[in-house]
From TrEMBL:
Gene3D superfamilies: Glucose Permease (Domain IIA). This is Peptidase family M23. InterPro entries: Cell_wall_metabolism_enzyme, Dup_hybrid_motif, M23ase_b-sheet_dom. Residues 783-834 form the M23ase beta-sheet core domain. GO terms for molecular function: metalloendopeptidase activity. Residues 237-279, 599-628 are annotated as: Disordered. The lineage of its organism: Bacteria, Pseudomonadati, Bacteroidota, Flavobacteriia, Flavobacteriales. Residues 246-258 have a biased composition (Low complexity).
């Protein structure tokens, strides 16, 4: 007979509830414990055990997030009866169960819609080469689909007039689902639809205007269930390429074709050009004389242009090479007219002379980047009236040109990387204040921000954190930076006396990168606990001992403490400015710029007013620097941060010395362990089956949000058909079979689990905000381990079930069985604690044991290699 569970069966999301089991009878001679399990009802009606670790006791607590809103859960409690007399064995039986359906006390709505240019210094300005970000901030709408539309604004003043702008909506829509943080986000690449957008923007004018002027103004609307629920209030100004600087009260002259432009009429005897709908330029890229693609050259080098076309044989084209700049582009070379001889055409090319290079220099005096340029290609069809097409404008396609030939020389996809290539140069070159710190420091800061706030926001938040640390350390970026000192001391020579403020034995200096205080060490990091049995001075000596450890641990290790400080409050930190507020004035995190943090009060009535008064006095200089109204608003306290951020933009890294860190895995594997990687040079697949660049698809977790089945149960390592798959350790063949979706598979049982565990490392997730996880439910590090290999072309014919195989044995050839043609040929590899199990159950992230290269640690050559592979289907 079971008891009953007491607790709320319709818990509000975000609220913690207590649940209690009431036993129904007596248990003579037995003592009881209770285990709590939670099951989630799937779409097919089957209950799935989602218990990670059972809760224990008669009374427990549960808290459901918004991700569980409206989903049916089943709670089960089992009574574990342990015999207290000799010979009595423990028993386990169901003690109670109930159904839970989380609800929300919030009305579903779109609270705010914003449009901004994430990559720009001014997020409200852009060019047609930029990608805008649209966000809808929602309440109680998890997993709902939001549709965005882009509009050009011709209404005067602030706000939008639907009647005036009725013809200004972009034809394309963008869709996204609301994530667990309540945000739906889409990217809007302007360049892909530049022609359509410019035509739309120039078609209608604001009342009284003669032309569109220097900018086109854009906003977005967010639609749910066919109804517009909100619109962005602040427009993004996109530079108008058609603006010639004419005053708006003067009619703009019509553009005329160039008088020197050759014409190729489509009919004998002349006549107007006619569009050829079958004509198509597919791609254009820079190559060298041997046909290898170029990514970096120097003045004096020869470059050629390769053009891939379709149905263009016999047609005439011209290519133009442009120097790319964030604000303007300069033409550096224009070819003559070229008659397309075949679908793939390699031009004769040209030499990049000093004169050509100087055409791309905007301001050679004082320009730190005047020794380097980036080029892209424009293809102009001479026979057709089709729009010209640009290739290589994005960051992956630009070719870098150096004024002086570097030691690396010309780089292409076929030659190996030179020693000293640095990941910072590829990914962290735009980190503000990056010039003040090491490559290792830069990488660590960005990694921390990716883990705290997600891969998509890592650079945005990393810039904010760097600005904060610059303020807090007075620009030193040193772990031993003491509060109130303009310089740092050798940490080896520091003592606890250095932390006492002069003339005041009851105050201790803050320390380090974000100026850790007693409050931070005691409440945020939980590393200090004041002992009331000690005297005041003794307690401060204990505190200062801990601070001395912080000063002497070095910057890289202290960055782990920085991360630990922000972890409990990461969900409340919505912007880089909030990072600063969480350190300097936590009361202002998430508030508006007008929010009053502290104010002067001559007669405080309560502790809250007294605290505000005390904080005001400590920061009154901030108020005096502004309007001196006896109030300190959020925007005032952010003044130092904004100055730091602005100055940091001029202190980006200029030197890189990672010593080939780009090809070194995150941590080195233990040398004593007997091990062979499952494939040669294990690299994460960067592309999907259809050739889309989406690395997160191929790691472990609920990472495939765009598919009905979000789960990916292992990791996909790049492996061409016919390459070898290896036994990682000494093992036994558990089974060999053919499975739906997996094709030819083999499963090995690890012979020595304890030896296998020596491979275990502290593994950092790259895409935790997008579903990547360490392990699924039921997985255990205590017990057996199974290695599962899938999509094999064939399993080694001599292998049989229960047969022993040694480490490094070739167990099969990699292939594409189970799904056929693909643009990401790979080995699907799993590590399990049970030979069977559905979904993510009983599985862990293979990266805990396999030291593989991800998109942040593989070389550019390896990335280019994967890109090349993804250009065709393999089977």
């Amino acid at each position: 007979m079971t008891g009953s569970i007491i607790g709320n069966q319709n818990p509000l999301v975000g609220t913690t509830y207590t649940y209690e089991i009431k036993p129904s009878g007596l248990s003579f001679g037995l003592k009881s414990d209770y285990e709590w399990y939670l099951y989630k009802k799937q779409k097919n009606g089957i209950w799935k055990d989602i218990t990670n670790k059972p809760k224990r006791g008669e009374k427990v607590t549960y808290r459901f997030g918004e991700i569980g809103l409206g989903i049916e859960f089943q709670m089960k409690v089992y009574e574990i009866k342990k015999g207290i007399l000799p010979g009595m064995s423990a028993t386990k039986e169901l003690a109670g169960s109930c159904i839970l359906v989380p609800t929300s006390d919030k009305v579903s709505k779109i609270e705010k819609v914003i449009l901004f240019n994430r990559g720009a210094k001014d997020v409200n300005k852009a060019s047609y080469r930029d990608t805008l970000i649209a966000q809808a901030h929602c309440i109680a709408m998890f997993n709902k689909e939001i549709e965005f539309h882009l509009w050009e604004d011709d209404a005067p003043g602030k706000g939008h007039d639907a009647n005036i702008n009725k013809n200004n909506r972009h034809t394309r829509s963008y869709k996204a689902r609301v994530n667990e943080k309540g945000i739906a986000e889409v990217s809007i690449p302007l360049m892909s639809d530049e022609k359509i957008l410019r035509q739309m923007a120039n078609q209608f004018l604001m009342k009284g205007d003669r032309n569109e002027g220097a900018n086109h103004e854009y906003y977005v609307t967010a639609t749910y269930s066919g109804k517009i629920q909100g619109a962005s209030q602040v427009n993004v100004d996109v530079a108008n390429p058609d603006d010639k600087g004419q005053p708006q009260n003067q009619p703009q002259p019509k553009s005329q074709p160039g008088t020197q432009t050759p014409k190729f009429p489509t009919k004998h005897g002349g006549g107007p050009k006619q569009p050829d709908p079958k004509g198509n330029i597919i791609e254009a890229l820079f190559i060298d004389d041997t046909g290898n693609e170029l990514s970096k050259v120097a003045v004096g080098d020869k470059v050629r242009v390769r053009i891939h076309s379709k149905n263009m044989v016999g047609k005439h084209i011209q290519y133009v090479v442009w120097e790319y700049d964030s604000t303007s582009n300069d033409e550096v070379y224009r070819s003559g007219n070229i008659k397309i001889p075949a679908d793939v055409c390699d031009t004769s090319g040209f030499i990049i002379t000093k004169a050509i290079f100087e055409k791309g220099v905007d301001s050679p005096i004082g320009d730190p980047d005047s020794d380097k340029q980036n080029y892209f290609i424009e293809i102009i069809s001479k026979d057709l009236s089709a729009e010209s097409q640009k290739f290589g404008v994005n960051s992956e396609g630009l070719m870098q040109v150096e004024k002086v030939k570097s030691a690396a020389g010309v780089q292409n996809t076929q030659k190996p990387d030179k020693p000293g290539s640095c990941i910072c140069q590829e990914q962290y070159k735009d980190l503000i204040w990056g010039g003040k710190v090491s490559c290792e420091f830069r990488k660590k800061v960005v990694q921390i921000c990716a883990e705290l706030w997600g891969e998509n926001r890592k650079m945005e938040m990393a810039n904010g954190l760097m600005a904060v640390m610059n303020v807090e350390t007075s620009g030193s970026f040193k772990a031993q930076q003491l509060e109130g000192w303009n310089s740092t001391k050798d940490p080896k020579k520091m003592t606890i006396k250095d932390f006492w403020k002069e003339g005041n034995r009851k105050s201790s200096r803050a320390i380090g990168l974000i100026q850790f205080t007693q409050d931070a060490l005691q409440n945020n990091l939980k590393e200090y606990k004041s002992n009331p049995k000690l005297s005041v001075e003794e307690r401060f000596d204990e505190l200062n001992k801990l601070k001395l450890e912080y000063a002497q641990m070095g910057e890289i290790k202290q960055l782990d403490k920085v991360k630990k400080y922000f972890e409990p409050q990461k969900n409340n930190i919505k912007s880089p400015e909030d990072i600063y507020l969480s350190v300097f004035a936590p009361i202002g995190v998430g508030k508006s710029d007008d929010f009053i943090l502290y104010q002067k009060n001559d007669n405080p009535q309560n502790n809250k007013e007294k605290t505000s008064n005390k904080n005001y006095n400590a920061n009154k200089s901030v108020d005096e620097e502004n309007n001196n109204d006896k109030k300190i608003q959020r925007r005032e306290i952010l003044g130092r941060y904004n100055i730091s951020f602005s100055r940091g933009s001029g202190n980006k890294p200029k030197t890189f010395n990672c010593e080939n860190a780009i090809t070194i895995p995150e941590s080195s594997p233990p040398k004593s362990t007997k091990w062979h990687d499952p494939v040669d040079n294990p690299m994460l697949c960067l592309y999907t089956q259809n050739g889309n660049y989406r690395p997160r698809y191929n790691v472990f977790g609920t990472v495939r949000k765009e598919r009905s089945n979000h789960n990916h149960q292992g990791i996909d390592f790049l492996a061409l058909p016919g390459s070898n798959a290896y036994a990682c350790v000494d093992a036994y063949v558990e089974f060999i079979s053919i499975q739906s979706g997996y094709g030819n598979v083999i499963c090995l049982k690890v012979k020595d689990p304890k030896e296998f565990l020596k491979r275990k490392r502290d593994f950092s997730l790259q895409y935790s905000n997008m579903g990547e996880i360490q392990s699924g439910s039921g997985f255990s590090f205590n017990g057996d381990f199974y290695l599962f290999y899938a999509h094999l072309q064939e399993v080694e014919k001599s292998l049989k079930a229960k047969q022993e195989v040694s480490c490094g044995t070739i167990i099969g050839k990699n292939g594409t069985s189970g799904y056929g043609q693909t643009k990401d040929p790979h080995l699907h590899f799993e590590i399990r604690s049970s030979a069977t199990g559905g979904g993510l159950t009983n599985r862990c992230h293979p990266g805990i044991f396999v030291y593989y290269k991800d998109e942040n640690t593989m070389s550019q050559k390896e990335k280019d290699y994967q890109k090349e592979i993804a250009q065709k289907f393999w089977d």
